[in-house]
Predict the 3D structure of the following.
Amino acid sequence: MPLSPQAKTRLSVLAAIAALPLLYFHRASFSDEIFISRDILRVYYPLKKYWVDRVSQGQFPDWYPFDGLGQPYAGMLISGAFHPANLFYLVLSLGGALKLITLLSYMAALGGTYVFGRLWGMGRGAALLSGLTYALCGYMVGISNNLLYLMAAATFPWALWGAERFLRQPSVARAATAAIPLALVLLSGDPQSFAMCNGMILVLVLLRPDRASALRVAPRAGVLIVLGALLSAVQILPVLSILREVNPSAPNLTMATFYSFHPLRLVELVLGPLYLDPESGTVASGNLAGEVFKMGLYSFWVSSVHVGFPALLLLPGALWAHRRDPLLWKLAVLALLVFALALGHHLPLYRWFYEWVPLWSSFRYPEKLLPYVLFLCALGAGAGVEALGRDVALSRRLGVVGLGLALVCGLLALAEWRGEVFSQGVIAALWEKPRAKDLGMIHGNFLKATLLSMLTLVLLGVVLLRVRHLSLRAGAFVVLQFALLYVANEGTYHLTYKDLLEQPTGMVDFVLRREASSPEGQGWPRVYGAVQNLEPDTVPPGLNIYDVASLNIVAALEPSTTALWNIESARPYLPGVSKRFIRLIDLIQSHSFDLWLGRLAGLYGVGYITLDARTYQLVGGNPDFILTHDRNVKSVLLGNPRTLPRAYLAAPLCLRDTDAVRELIISRSFQPGRQAALECPAGTLVPEAPPSAGELGKVRFVRYEPEDVELSVEASAPAVLVLNDAFYGGWSATVDGQPAPILPANVAVRGVLVPAGAHQVTFTYRTPGQRLGAFFSLGTLGLLGLAALWERRRGLKFEPAGKLPPT
């Protein structure tokens, strides 16, 4: 049967939602190159590869052994261990699956904003403009380098859409369509977005037209929040179980407010990315980010925050048209509040939240709040399109304003061309020691941005003044917005060749070949990547700076890329690392990095160390320890002659607390391998042992798996069995089948006291809270399904409450 006009329109919208992101990311969509920038390589590829390796063998990954002596996998929230999108990794290549999930995230962001706009009364063209503006703005394109934040930002519009539908007319099915995406925000790995999304659901209650409606729907919002928490309990409980054992991500306000949004970057919202090298798509200078923009770190959180004039010109139109609507002012106050929080240390508001709002102190990087502001701006742009359709005079006024702003942009371009008013007059004035190269780059970027904005505004003015047909006008807005966002921001995402994930580099290959002769079942080789300079001096023809930089990261055995080749990285990078180990590393390096390299790295089973070749020469390193070198990275691979086995017997030294153990192991009196410093609870009986390690016996691995380790021990005297893997809650041990306490050994690893004789010792890890969380999550999901089925069969309907008027 032929499709109805309505069905054809819906199919056209669906096609646009799918096609626009594919066209925007055509370099990824229509090639075999893969996303690579920033934490994509360091975090997500290693974590997802490990998930696939374990799940494809019918095992669930409780423990992740490849970073910082090991850490919980599910408890490490960024792993996204329970997100259903992980299934793509089982059927596609690693890079192909991540690319598909990234592209689907942009489609989800566009589609979620579209349906939310439609729910609030927008026409299809206006809602499509809102979705396009949000999904492909500079921030969202820039966050392609950090998958969990992209997935969360793409999901929360669907959670808000579902919540608004449920608040208006509740049903079990509607509760599920709201609570499931709400849970997926957390399962993506972003707790701050989960908290913000729950807060936004409460805000939806406050948007009711009267107090009676708000009071009537408030319990419904509570139901959604509870359901979201129950559905994500399988992730929440493991995370809560390890909070006391991980290093806080934001231990003080200074670190919490790294990457605060700088007021000067408001210019970028309008004009586009001004501070980036056009060739590399990276910040022009680390000093620029650190000194001028006070980021706290020498980069930007995202390369661009550009929204563009088409959306930002329509937004004031919506504000003017609805200036007497109380709903508008509620939304405006909300947007300003979130924006003030995103400014971080530039205003006192974030400090107040950090100090007074429960759990807020665990969040960091205020700029991560921008998606909620940009989402509201995008909806405002769509509301502006609707307002123009009802007010011809407003359309003419905005057209005149657009042409006037085009003149302003032209004058700014002229002023920069002739007098460098922005690059020299603003940036150089704020920069203590500016580099001429960087200022020249900003000068060129500003000229390009102002001229592009001028052209866009002229076209906008013509459309507003001359095009009367509403559908044609909305289509013109969509085309102009897409073209502007593409020209301004397309170069800010980065791809490279998939071979990077499939072919080991020279140092990696050397370690793999050298370890091939090692006995199986004793764990994986452990390295410590200490190369400081990974920036390429030159970029070979046919490559870009990100190709070379990514290759250098892998070649230098940087964390946590080594996991791609089943090599452990002792250098901690992921957030679930034991605070015992990370604080130990900090203490050792505060004394002397030589202490770590020379004496203590081997104490924790580190068999290989990478170091800058020049640095190794300057410290008088012994060339006999150099196993191989990489001329491209200018680094050397050192073999550690003092590496202790993964498991060994030692004489126990019982101390009162962690501080005492730390002081002992960095002292010259401590004998690594012969002694093991233990933290012993009161009443622990530690038998005397001979001082010579050679008299204590032998250890043999029977089985070594991430969550299950079995060893055969022959102790000639009472001793402590040291397993050189991270001490962490959730591990249990038995000696000859009888439970035995695990004691912290040498601050960061596991120790079990064994008497003289032959023994079987096992270590077992089970994620605390995971089974209970799974019971809550699966039980809630099952009950929702049964209730929805019962509701459908009964044909139950509920009384609408608090329906909002159309935009």
